[in-house]
Structures are given as C-alpha cells and as structure tokens.
Amino acid sequence: MIKCLQFPAWYIHRVKTPREPQNISHAMADPIRWARYHWQRLVSAEGQDGSNSSSKSSDKCYPSTKTTGKHRIVIPCLGHFKEEYEKVSKLYMNNRIRTTKYTLLNFIPRNLFEQFHRAANLYFLFLVVLNWVPLVEAFQKEITMLPLVVVLTIIAVKDGLEDYSKYKLDKQINNLLTKVYSRKEKKYIDQCWKDVNVGDFIRLSCNEIIPADMVLLYSTDPDGICHIETAGLDGETNLKQRQVVRGFAEQVSEIDPEKFSSRIECESPSNDLSRFRGFVEHSNKERVGLSKENLIMRGCTIRNTEAVVGIVVYAGHETKAMLNNSGPRYKRSKLERRLNTDVLWCVLLLILMCLIGALGHGLWLSSYSEMPFFNIPEPDGKSTPPALAGFYMFWTMIILLQVLIPISLYVSIEIVKLGQIYLIENDIDFYHEKMDSTIQCRALNIAEDLGQIQYIFSDKTGTLTENKMVFRRCSIAGHEYCHEENTKRLESYQDLEGEDLADALCSSLSLMPKQKEHSCRTANEPLNSKSLNQAAAGCSASGGEDGASDIPRSRHVAFSSPIETDVVPDTQLLEKFSHVSFHSFEQSEETDREQSLETMYITDFFLALAICNTVVVSSPNQPRQKMRLAPLGRIPIKSLEEIKQMFQRLSVRRLSSSPLPSAKESSFSESSNTFVGKLSIFRVKLASAAAEGVTQMANVPQTVDRQQSPEVPPPGEQDSVDVAAGSKTCDPEPYLEQSPITMLRYEAESPDEAAMVYAARAYKCTLQTRTPDQVTVDLGALGSLTFQLLHILPFDSVRKRMSVVVRHPLSNKVVIYTKGADSVIMDLCSIPTDVHSSKMKQKKIKARTQKHLDDYARRGLRTLCIAKRVMSDEEYAEWLNSHFLAETSIDNREELLLESATRLETKLTLLGATGIEDRLQEGVPDTIEALRKAGIKIWMLTGDKKETAVNIAYACRLLEPDDQVFTLKSQNRDACALLMNNILEAIQKSIDAKNNHCPKLASASPGTSTPTAEFSAGLVIDGKTLEYTLHESLQNIFLELTGKCRAVVCCRVTPLQKSEVVRLVRNNLKVMTLAVGDGANDVSMIQMADTGVGVSGQEGMQAVMASDFAISQFRHLRKLLLVHGHWCYTRLANMILYFFYKNVAYVNLLFWYQFFCGFSGTSMTDYWILILFNLLFTSVPPIIYGILDKDVSAELLMQLPQLYVTGQNSMAYSPLTFWITLLDAFYQSMVCFFVPYFAYCGSEIDIFSFGNPLNIAALFIILLHLLIESKTLTWIHVTVIVGSILLYFIFALTFGAACKTCNPPSNPYWIMQKHMTDPVFYLVCILATCIALMPR
C-alpha cells in the first residue's frame, strides 16, 4: 500500500474520477484509487503552500512559467489573462493560410528569381547582355531578347495560373465559418476561419470540420470522448477517439470560457501526427498531462458527438495538417540527368565552333591585311589587330550560334510531361469500380522513369493481397477448429461481385448452425440475443428479405465488406461455447478439470478477440452514431413481476457495485450461504432519462442455481439471459433502444482487428460499446459484461504485439489480454511450475498450437497468438508506479515505455491462435509474371512470418515450383557470411550442372548474364539475418547472391529495414528502383526509391500521400510500367533527341556560311526568321510527337513484356544515339546548305535571296524528318505539320511585303514573292530535301 502512495493525484490513466461524493466510499474500497485520492490531497496542499508568494502579488493572475524555445504557452484572451495574452499572442500565427507562392507585388521579381535558377536561362540572359556590347553585337538588341522573354513569359503564365487556383482555394477555406467565443458578446458567434487565433474557444457540432488544432475541453458525450474522422488529414475513414482533458471530463454542463483560469504549456509546432506533449496548469499549480488523445487536429471532422468545445493551441500554418502539406513531389528523372550532360556537350560543341570562327576570322584578316576593304580602321584611325578582332568575333559567334542550345526544350519537356500525365490519369483501365478511384500522378516530372525500372520492392499485405482479412481457422487450448462451414460460405461467392454477392450471402448464411429460424427485422425493431447474432446484412438465415435490407450502408467505412463481416461459426466450437455460463466459469477457476479449463480458455479467447483492440462501435442506420442502451425512464414495464425483479436487481447492485470489494464485502461475497454468493454478476449500462447520460449499472446479479430453474432452456436454445432463479427467461428487448447487435458497425484501424471482432461476434461474444475507461461485451449466457479498461498498450513494430489491461467484472481481477506475432508471444508464454499437471497441459497446448501455426502458415494464412495474464492488485500497483514514471519522463520516454510494456507482457498463458486469410488481389500472378518477363527483378518485403510469405510468393508466381529456394537465416554476422558463401557455391554448382547437362542450350545463349535462363533460384531471408547482411562488410556478397536469384523474399522486416534494402540496391547497383506499398509502414521505402507507388487500399492513405503515383490495384502496375512507362520514356527520349537534331541542323547552316563570309558573324537570313524558326515554326510538332507518338501498340506491349527492356537499357536515348543524331544533323545541314550554294553559284543573287531557299529546305527537311520518325500518324500530326509550314509561308510573305527597311543595307522585301515564281527555287528545295532525307 505504501508504494501506491507514490502516485500523483492527476495521474488517473483511463479511470474516471468519481462524479458524486457518495462514490468516494466505493473508491476507498479500491486500494489503488484510495492511494490516488490521498496523493491528490497531498499534492494539492503542497501546491497551495508553494504558491502563496505568487498569490500575494496578484489575487487572480500568477506568474507565467519559464519556458524554453521548444515550448509555447497558450492562454485565453479573457478576464485576467488579457494583458498577458496581448504579449504572448504576437508570437503565434493566426489561422489564415496561404499556400500560394506569389502576391501581386512580388509575382514578377520572385518568379524571375526562381526561373533564373536554371542554368539555361542564365546562359541566355548572358547572351542578351552580351549582345548589348557594341563590339560583339550580332543581332538587333530587341531580337536577342525575344527567345528568353517568350520562354520566361510562358513559364510565368503557367506558374501564375497554378498559383491563382491555389489562391481561390485558400480564399474559400479561409472564409469558412465556425463558432468562436466572443468576450464582448459573452457568447459563441460565427467567425471566419482566418480570424481564429491561438487561445480562442471554439464550439463545433457533429459533422463539422475542425478549423485549427485544439485541446479538447468539453464533449457532450457523457464519457467525455469525441470521435473524429481523419480522412481529410491522412485519408483514413475509420473513426478515432479523442478524450477530454482529465479533470474537465467530469463536468455536467458545458465549460464556461469566462471561468477558465488555467493555462496550457505544450511543445512547439511539429509535423508529427502521432505525438503531442504538454500539460494544463491550473491556478493552484496543479498540472494535468496532455497527449495526442486530447488533441483534435485541423482538417478532421467531428463525428458521433453532438458538440465539443476546445481551445486553439496551433493555428494556420503551425497546425499539424499544414506542416504535413508538402504538395506535389518533384524529382529529377534519369532522363533529365542525362539531358543535362548532353546540354554540356552542346555547350562544348558551341565553344568549339566559335573558336573555329574566331580563329578563321583572325586568319582571314591577317591574309587581307593590305586591303583596307576587309580591315576597316576605327574612328581614331587605328586598325584592330587580327588577334583582338578574333577575340571579339568569338563572342559574336556565341551570340550568332546561340540557338545550338535549345532554350525552348525545357518548356517543351514540361508541356510534354503534363500531356503524358493527362493521358495516364484518363486511362479507363486504371479505374477501379469498387473503390471508385483511378490512378493519381502526384509527381509531375518523372513519368519517363516508369519505363526504366529494373527493381521492384513490394509489400505483401494490401499490396499483393486484398487486405480483406477473412477469419478462417483458430486453435484454442491446443484444439483446432477448421470452420468448414465458413470455408463453404467463402467458396460460394468467392468469384461474385456487386449485387450477386449479396444474393450469395443470403444463401451461404443458411449454412450457419441454428436451432430456430429467425427473420430479419427492421432497424427500429428490437431483437433478442439469438437473432441479433445470426442476422445478416440484408438477409436472414432463412433467406428472408425484410426491412433490414433497407438499412443504408456506408461505402467509406473500411473493413466492412460482407466477406469480412459475415462469419459462420464452427459447429463444434459453437457447441462448446454455448455451455459457457457463470456456473461453468466459476467451476473453471475453482477446479482443474480439463473440461472446465477448456471452457475458461474458450471464454478468454473470444473475450480477447472482442476487447484487445481499439475498435469504435457505431450504428449503420444512423451513420457514425454510437450504440446506446435505452434510458431507464423508457423501459416498458409489462407486469408487477417485472417491477419486482427490477427492484431486486437494483437492490443487489448496491451490494456489489464496487469494482474491488473491501475485506468485509469480500468475506460476505465468499460466503456460500449468503444470497449474493449465488448471484451471477454482469454489467448493464442504462441512461438517465433526465440527463440523457449513461449511468453504470454494473454487476447486476443473477441467480445461477439451475437446479431450481426447470424452465431455463438448454444452451443454444436460449433467446435471452437468465436473470433470476425460478423465473422465466427475461427478454432483453426492453433494454435495447434500437437496432440489432449484428447491425453494429465496427470501425477498426486495421483489418486484423475488424476480422477478430466479427469472428467473436459470430460466437455471441459481441463488442457493444467502448469508452475511454470501459468496454462492454455481450457474452452469450453470461449477459452483458462491462470491463474496466485500465490500460491499452498499442501495437508497435518493435514489440509486435498489443495488450489491454482490464478488471474482469466476474473475477474482479486485473487481467492482461495480449495478441501478437507467434514468434514473440510463444517466447513470452510461461510454463507453470507449481502444479505438474498444469505444466504438462501447458506444454501440450503450446506444442499443439505451434503445430497448428505452422500449418496455417503453409496455407498462406496470417497468424496471431492470443494470450492472457492474471495479476494481483499488488503486482499491478507496482507495475503502475514504474509505468507512471515512464509516461511522465521527458528524456528517453519511448525506451522507458517499451521497457514498462515488456515487464507487463511476461508470464503469459497461451490461449490459442488464429489463422486469417488475406487473399491475393485480382491479376497479381499475371502481373508479376509479365513484369519478370520484362526483365524486372521483384523483391517481396513483408513483416509476416516466413511460411506465410513463402506461400504467398508461390501463389503469386514470385516463386515457381521448379525454383530452388535457399533460406538465409543465421544467428550472427560471421555465420551469415559463411552461409551466403555456401549458397553462392551451391548456385554456381547448379548452374554448371545445368550447362553441362544441356551444352546445346548453353551455347545457344552465350550472352545471357543471369542464371534464370537455365537455373532458377529464390532467396528467403528473415529480418534478423537481414540486419547482418546490411552491414557494410557483407553488402557486396549479399548483392552478388541476390543478383543470382530470380526472386527475393524478406520476411519479418521492419519499416526501417525496408528503406535500407532499397537504398542498398539503388546506390550500390546504380539501378532504377520502384517501391510499392499501401500502409504507413511502407512510407520510408516508397520515399527512398526512385519511383514510389502507393496502393490506395484498406490501411488509409499514408502510402498514397508519400508516393509519386497512386494506384488502386497491384495489377494496374503492369500497364503503368509496360505500356505508359514505355511510351513516356520513348516519346520523351525521341523528342529530346529531335530537339538537339533540329537545333544543330539549323545552326550549322550559319556555321557553313561563315566559311564564305570571312567568318564575319554575318547571317544569310533575317534575324527575325532566324530567332522564330526554332521558337515558333518548328516547336509545336515535336511537342505533339512527344505526347501522342506510339512506337508499339498497347496490346503488343502487354503481350510482349520483353519490349520493356529497351527502356531499362536506355536504348532510345544513350550516348551513342546522341552522337549519331548530331552526325545526322551535320550531314543534313551540309546537304541543305551546299545544294542551294552550287545551284546559285556564279549568279548575282543577294544574301537574303540565297538564305530564303536555305530556310525553306531546312523547314521541309526538319518537319519531314519528324514525320519519318513518328511511328503513329494521326490527323493531329498532319494538321500540326501542315500548319507549321503554312505559318512560315504566311509570315515570310507578310514580312517580305511589309518590311522594306528592316535590316539595312540588305532587306527581305519581296524576296519570297519573287522566289515563288522561280522554278529553280522549287527544284532546289525539293532536291535538297530528298538528298538530306535519303538515308532514312
């Protein structure tokens, strides 16, 4: 008892403070509550003494707590806090959000600043400035600026439109209304979200969106809880519970902001959604801790609660939702990195051409130094030396040949990528009707990487499988129950979908064991306990079609498909479970008989399934409304006998209402001669008619002397719970306000939890309600049992288990129910040492259960072990003391909590195990087979055990029956290295044996570098061994080993190990990687890979939000990679090469001309045409080519996955293809220049008349070259090409007619008109075009 006195008063974890004074006497009966109560008084007294000095200085206000930069103080702008609030509030943001980058004032300067981060834009800006230097001027100053201005303008308009759409959305959100308390009007008034500030009190109603991060201070829920839906934050649609701050939950009326005299100190804003730390400090210096359970976050929606009140702690951009809003992901693709390298080569080529021009100009002037016509002196009479003139000419040539660097290429690439993304998102094959979702492209600039993937790292659960957990088998106390009836039910509608599924359900439910037929009832009609547990959604066991089918179903509730919810119990197990009664439960604790022990095991097993979770209970006919039992005032009284029974129950309840009886009460209850000793105790929750709240009617007794009850029907035929000896069965219908128990909706955070709760419900162990401090379960003949919920130790990837600590309503003992991975639970289960028979039984149970677990794993089922532990109050008090120290620790809090949980979860008693099926998604085997034919290596990374992972690998064709599978499992690093060497030797021997056995086959494919052609090997490795292989000393041999295997299965891996594996392969092998997953544990892996794909499945949207692409089914990956990935890569690669080709081909016309003009930097065409040729006349066709071209049809790409290898090996865009393209451009430019040159050689044609046929021939050559390159010819291609040609002629004719003195002394006036009447002009253009394109 003395140890219990170490608890602080405010530490009442999940145990509510007694609301009424008379309850203190009952609380005293509980030694733990007694200790807490006295400690509370002690701390309160110390706090008051310690605050005397501060209270003397100010009657109402006390000095603020000294905080560091890591904390913040939140106080309301009310009463005595007003002056302090004005100082503190200036440090925090208001609730106005702005996701835009620009304003009207800073748009132009900021956008230009961002655009000039690109090296190409800086390069062209340098050329513009250089052209303003008179000594090196090549063009008119305005003309040189044109390309840069056009590119900057296009990108600025695009950025502005995107930002304007964000501005409109921000404005809409900022102007949403919410109820904020006004100190002037002394009431809640409507205010816009943008006017909310830290410290404001906000009142929210049901279905209202939360405007800011708030600490919950009041809830209309009588238990002080609030349900929120976080779909707007993380995409999860299942409900989550939040709890009013301790000390405020006991308030009967709504909190009055004017009377709020506390302050809140919490951590600074962070983006961690799962963490919130702080405390509320009252005026008497008493502190109450805060956690994430007390925080409701911006973007979530209030559900299942009429109204809540909270105080804002984070607003606007400091809220967790905004801190997590990173927007679209931007990555640099492999093709873009290659492009930057080739741009540098073009720069070197430009410098080389300019050096040739500078050197040639200097030599030209040197050879004609005596002729003043070629060496015009300066105004001062001095001549420029040839060397200096050559230097000036170098910069002039830079300006003249600037088009060699394709400035419009970057803009074109962005446009092409947007077009490719549009086509992907509008592909109807990616639409999934069941989920009403299609593909999402969250990264806009790496679509081409989809065509170059070499390694895929995939999660198993929810990615390869449906993540619809179906309860298939279980083992209890060493006895296996196969659930054959449930198997038949699943087979009956396994292949059905939609409406056919509902019909199949009705027929399959007829397989359910039953003694009486029950028809479906309407939502408002009460049902007895039997019909409640056997009614199905929309149909009865007899196939009836009654009003229940009209109950609306919510499509957005996770884990609620009929396959998951409707479980047919095993006949043998149901028969055993039906014998459970208070008498049998009492016998099982007092005796050691095998039958009694088995009964206790079965009862505890299903209790663990029902309560060892965080499932929220709701009703379907009133979506998101929690199930409540009827108020006492509404109970219909039918007879005086029922009135007598009711008062008898209430009077007995007063004798046994204390959860932990005192010594006198214990001795009284232990007396076999007393009336209470014959009572069956169970709890029922009744609501007060006046307050419309819930009053706990716990431990309502029932007599269990069945020898005096001849009218009690045998087990299995009862429709209600026995209430009193000698009386008829009491129908619980009057106590239910509405709707059947089977129509309860369970909102689980994981499909495993939902599957187990539905399985327990099938055996009449129905989870009815859940509050922060208690769980109510309807347990067949035992009635409604209310468990006091003391602690929840949530699942984590380190412990790999979850536990709940409850006080059992029948035994009044502290019980720990634990579920988790068999590899962990089996080691925590202890063998009794006191009784030899119990020791032998536990060994036998453990051995049999392990055998069943192995069998489940071989069948591909997910396995979980169920265990329990009974603690004495002294043991629990001692553990609670250490756990409190861990929870209140600031440093190493997580480690201390883990150590505390480990101390609790020891000496467990194994109850049994479950086998849950997670079926493969549709099309997974075919998808994996196609991806492997495409040359992609696939690794499966899963947290499941080895047998389950291997079974799924075989089912999805990741492993083939002919594969030789090696298992890598060791206890230390040296053994791991030795084992890997042995496996490598075994693989090499097998390959050599295959080659020797089939020499002809080996010689037929001498270029094969992988052993998959002759020998197939698979590798299975567990998480512990994987940790050794990730060590730097073993990485190379591990990668060598995996390179010789066609598939790798990593089981029992943690999320961190997943990301480390991806990092290892990506960085060491220099390959393109893709990671695909569906859960939060896959986020690190998805972000580590070159391309991350999220599957929008059953486990929320964390993976989707972290991914580059989001799909709804794994099978969509096949078309995404093999078709769209191939297309995106080849299109963009060919378009980039075409841009290099056309720019080099056109610029070389100017370069060749320099050999005939003394390298003077003169152009044979007008500057406007020179600039607009690449910027306007030939820019649109390659964009259309990059968006619409299809080198191979989608059907052929799906049939021949081997075509994907072209992207993996970068065949479309490699250094070889780049240089071949440039050589082709040089050849075509020479033909285009010298054919007109020899045609007009010796004539008196002027400079622009010579340049006009060059431009026309170049236009036809470049556009027809694109037409030849295009594998797909549509009306769009033809229209764009013809339009470009017509646009050039229209511009040239108009410009030639209007421009008389545009470029003196030479002018393009009327040149085009003259050429169009000259037959030689047509002959030159046709001949040059044909010769240039002849090699193609």
From TrEMBL:
Gene3D superfamilies on file: Calcium-transporting ATPase, cytoplasmic domain N, Calcium-transporting ATPase, cytoplasmic transduction domain A, Calcium-transporting ATPase, transmembrane domain, HAD superfamily/HAD-like
Gene Ontology CC terms: endoplasmic reticulum membrane; phospholipid-translocating ATPase complex; plasma membrane
Cofactor: Mg(2+)
P-type ATPase N-terminal domain ranges (all copies): 83-144
EC numbers on record: 7.6.2.1
Highest rank taxon of the organism: Eukaryota
Domain P-type ATPase C-terminal, first and last residues per copy: 1104-1336
Classification via SUPFAM superfamilies: Calcium ATPase, transduction domain A, Calcium ATPase, transmembrane domain M, HAD-like, Metal cation-transporting ATPase, ATP-binding domain N
Positions annotated to bind ATP: 459-461, 753, 795, 819, 862, 942-944, 1052, 1058, 1081-1082
Binding site for Mg(2+): 459, 461, 1078, 1082
Reaction catalysed by this enzyme: a beta-D-glucosyl-(1<->1')-N-acylsphing-4-enine(out) + ATP + H2O = a beta-D-glucosyl-(1<->1')-N-acylsphing-4-enine(in) + ADP + phosphate + H(+); ATP + H2O + phospholipidSide 1 = ADP + phosphate + phospholipidSide 2
Topology within the bilayer: Multi-pass membrane protein
Keywords from the UniProt entry: ATP-binding, Endoplasmic reticulum, Magnesium, Membrane, Metal-binding, Nucleotide-binding, Translocase, Transmembrane, Transmembrane helix
Molecular function GO terms recorded: ATP binding; ATP hydrolysis activity; glycosylceramide flippase activity; magnesium ion binding
Claim: Nucleotide-binding is one of the keywords in the record: yes
Region (Disordered): 47-67, 700-721
Spans traversing the lipid bilayer: 120-139, 343-364, 392-413, 1135-1155, 1167-1188, 1216-1240, 1247-1268, 1274-1298, 1319-1335
InterPro entries: ATPase_P-typ_cyto_dom_N (IPR023299), ATPase_P-typ_P_site (IPR018303), ATPase_P-typ_TM_dom_sf (IPR023298), ATPase_P-typ_transduc_dom_A_sf (IPR008250), HAD-like_sf (IPR036412), HAD_sf (IPR023214), P-type_ATPase_IV (IPR006539), P-type_ATPase_N (IPR032631)
Compartment(s) of residence: Endoplasmic reticulum membrane; Membrane
UniProt-annotated catalytic positions: 459
Family of the protein in this entry: Belongs to the cation transport ATPase (P-type) (TC 3.A.3) family. Type IV subfamily.
PANTHER family according to UniProt: PHOSPHOLIPID-TRANSPORTING ATPASE VD (PTHR24092:SF84), PROBABLE PHOSPHOLIPID-TRANSPORTING ATPASE (PTHR24092)
Protein's recorded name: Phospholipid-transporting ATPase
Originating organism: Crocodylus porosus (Saltwater crocodile)
Gene this chain is encoded by: ATP10D
